[in-house]
């Protein structure tokens, strides 16, 4: 009898359009947020499991209604004639909701990761345990919905629990809010952060599935097996959640700094005269940075190439990288950073009237293809953690502010035959802070 009930509930849940709509919205939402950004599996995996909160919410509500349906509007009287007892119906709903919810949640999570890998080049590290955590979280919320439906059969109980759970999850930003790792999902992760305690958190969620299922059955009658499973689940869930909480990788900036200081924290390689350092899982992004910096470095005279900065992820280059049209802005901004540093104007807020600003703009144009107007930047830093990114607050692509005079002089220089030889020949004078724009125009002819 129980097997037939489980099959019935599984078929019923699989035909529920609300669950599939939630899965479709979760996938579409996450793809819309990340489509213009290079794949980063370290962040993408967590972000997609975070969007699975939509599926978890739908499963919780549907499971709650299914578990409480025989207690509403005379439903109990209508089901009293069935051969199965109420406890069997509860067990069947709980098992079906947990299995179907986990299966439906797996569709957008796995589908999203497949799409992102196909976009390439992929950076970051795929943590399979994080994927399983998102799936197990939906199973846990399904069992929670059944338990709430049995103990509090009113229609309002499920939505109230759902609202509280969602608010706690959303307010748990960087684990500094409410619930910490005791919540089913922890939404945020950063490329430079140490590994999350995904395995411990997964064990906690599996224990929660057993705990909520047992609590739902205890509503009918206290039996040794049910009580024993509930107590065992508590004995596993509480220490697992506490251990995960104690292992919080995002608690303090000091922990992140200690991680960065470790020798194996970086993958470094030299291209031409520039050294690029990335977190090991982000080495596939180095060609993006080299495409931005290479033309600038090639235009710097050999005597000054020792002044070219090291390109280090999170300090000089951003922890996110765009795809499509926005990539040009990031590429040019990185080129502007290098041009400003090698000419010595990086520390300036306003670099008007200086010859070295003209040189920096000319260097930037080697990558950008043209000298940009002295306009403030307006750019999105993306949906991900962009620690170390100042791109949204910069004055210009170059970094410091400059005026039309410097831009005009740089454009004339860019169009002048033999400009590189002239810049190289007069490099020391042109990059002297005391040399003015007017003097540069005369010096460069």
UniProtKB/TrEMBL annotation:
The chain crosses the membrane at residues 50-69, 90-115, 135-153, 160-181, 201-218, 225-247. Keywords: Membrane, Transmembrane, Transmembrane helix. This is Uncharacterized protein. It comes from Actinocrispum wychmicini. The lineage of its organism: Bacteria, Bacillati, Actinomycetota, Actinomycetes, Pseudonocardiales.
């Amino acid at each position: 009898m129980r097997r037939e009930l489980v099959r019935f509930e599984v078929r019923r849940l699989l035909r529920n359009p609300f669950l599939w709509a939630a899965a479709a919205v979760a996938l579409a939402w996450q793809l819309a947020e990340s489509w213009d950004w290079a794949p980063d599996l370290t962040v993408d995996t967590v972000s997609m499991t975070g969007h699975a909160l939509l599926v978890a919410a739908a499963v919780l509500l549907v499971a709650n209604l299914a578990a409480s349906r025989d207690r509403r509007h005379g439903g109990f009287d209508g089901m009293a004639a069935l051969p199965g007892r109420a406890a069997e119906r509860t067990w069947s709903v709980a098992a079906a909701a947990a299995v179907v919810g986990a299966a439906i949640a797996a569709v957008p999570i796995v589908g999203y990761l497949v799409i992102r890998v196909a976009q390439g080049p992929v950076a970051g590290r795929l943590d399979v345990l994080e994927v399983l955590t998102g799936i197990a979280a939906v199973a846990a919320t399904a069992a929670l919905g059944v338990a709430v439906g049995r103990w509090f059969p009113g229609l309002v109980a499920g939505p109230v629990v759902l609202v509280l759970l969602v608010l706690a999850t959303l307010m748990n930003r960087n684990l500094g809010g409410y619930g910490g790792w005791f919540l089913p999902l922890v939404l945020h992760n950063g490329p430079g952060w140490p590994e999350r305690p995904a395995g411990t958190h997964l064990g906690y969620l599996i224990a929660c599935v057993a705990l909520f299922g047992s609590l739902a059955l205890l509503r009918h009658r206290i039996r040794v097996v049910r009580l024993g499973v509930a107590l065992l689940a508590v004995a596993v869930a509480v220490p697992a959640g506490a251990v995960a909480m104690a292992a919080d990788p995002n608690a303090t900036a000091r922990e992140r700094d200690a991680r960065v200081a470790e020798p194996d924290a970086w993958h470094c390689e030299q291209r031409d005269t520039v050294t690029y350092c990335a977190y090991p899982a982000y080495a596939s992004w180095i060609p993006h940075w080299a495409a931005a910096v290479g033309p600038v470095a090639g235009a710097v005279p050999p005597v000054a190439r020792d002044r070219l900065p090291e390109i280090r992820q999170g300090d000089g280059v951003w922890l996110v990288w765009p795809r499509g049209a926005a990539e040009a802005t990031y590429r040019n901004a990185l080129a502007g950073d290098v041009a400003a540093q090698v000419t010595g104007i990086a520390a300036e807020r306003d670099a008007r009237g200086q010859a070295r600003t003209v040189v920096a703009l000319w260097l930037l144009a080697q990558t950008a293809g043209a000298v940009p107007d002295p306009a403030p930047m307006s750019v999105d830093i993306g949906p991900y953690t962009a620690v170390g990114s100042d791109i949204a607050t910069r004055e210009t692509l170059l970094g410091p502010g400059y005026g039309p005079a410097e831009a005009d002089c740089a454009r004339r220089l860019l169009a002048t035959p033999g400009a590189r030889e002239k810049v190289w020949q007069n490099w020391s004078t042109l990059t002297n802070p005391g040399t003015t724009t007017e003097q540069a125009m005369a010096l460069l002819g």
